[in-house]
């Protein structure tokens, strides 16, 4: 299935619409059924130029269709999710991989007095080096934490919400003339199905992102930040509580 989709990206501008729409359809179903390995594989296969920017580059005098802009937005939502997971994994590896350097035990006055100048110098140097390594370790942990928190909050606080279906104009889409089929009914069915999929995906995967954010602040000993996440859930600006409770 993924190989079949890949062929759409080899056909140039003729099938750019189909490539991004079908990529979104596959990703939507992968997310819906929690087939994340396949979703990640598709993201790796997708060319960086896929989307409305590519359409505008090839057709500079043609206004980008609303449906293509909406498809680009959906594709970017999946990209942001995987980027958030990657940044969280980076932070977790830094936290669990390399242990924080240990500072040499402080010497007693009696033991210090017994050391000659050379050994005192060596001891002071080892303490300084350990402090430098410890500071470097904490800076890296803080850097990875900041990167992870930043994108997690960006997704949770997205102005229009993460993976929210946008209203589309009725006249958008290909002109099809079927004598035996009501095309509008098919389009409406697909729009409703897509919106329903979004609701289910948001419920599961926003909960996952919230859990990751809580875990970061909990392990970083930041209880006030954890409370802020609770406040974020009920903040009427973002309506996150509606995702889970309505």
UniProtKB/TrEMBL annotation:
This is Nuclear pore complex protein. Functions as a component of the nuclear pore complex (NPC). Part of the nuclear pore complex (NPC). Gene3D superfamilies: 1.20.190.50. GO terms for molecular function: structural constituent of nuclear pore. It is found in: Nucleus, Nuclear pore complex; Nucleus membrane. The keyword Cell wall biogenesis/degradation does not apply. One of its GO terms (biological process) is protein import into nucleus. Pfam families: Nup84_Nup100. Belongs to the nucleoporin Nup84/Nup107 family. Its main location: nucleus. Keywords: Membrane, mRNA transport, Nuclear pore complex, Nucleus, Protein transport, Translocation, Transport.
């Amino acid at each position: 299935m993924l190989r079949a989709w890949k062929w759409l990206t080899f056909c140039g501008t003729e099938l750019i619409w189909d490539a991004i729409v079908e990529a979104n359809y596959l990703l939507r179903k992968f997310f819906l059924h929690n087939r994340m390995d396949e979703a990640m594989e598709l993201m790796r296969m997708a060319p960086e130029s896929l989307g409305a920017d590519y359409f505008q580059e090839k057709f500079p005098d043609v206004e980008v269709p609303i449906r293509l802009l909406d498809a680009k937005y959906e594709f970017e939502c999946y990209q942001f999710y995987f980027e958030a997971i990657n940044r969280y994994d980076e932070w977790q590896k830094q936290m669990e991989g390399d242990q924080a350097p240990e500072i040499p035990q402080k010497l007693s006055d009696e033991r210090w007095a017994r050391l000659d100048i050379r050994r005192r110098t060596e001891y002071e140097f080892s303490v300084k080096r350990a402090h430098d390594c410890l500071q470097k370790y904490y800076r890296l942990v803080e850097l990875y934490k900041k990167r992870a928190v930043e994108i997690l909050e960006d997704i949770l606080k997205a102005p229009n919400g993460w993976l929210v279906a946008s209203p589309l104009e009725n006249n958008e889409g290909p002109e099809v003339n079927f004598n035996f089929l009501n095309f509008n009914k098919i389009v409406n069915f697909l729009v409703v199905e897509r919106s329903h999929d979004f609701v289910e995906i948001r419920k599961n995967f926003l909960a996952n992102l919230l859990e990751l954010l809580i875990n970061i602040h909990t392990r970083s000993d930041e209880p006030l930040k954890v409370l802020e996440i609770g406040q974020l859930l009920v903040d009427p600006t973002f309506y996150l509580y509606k995702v889970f409770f309505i």
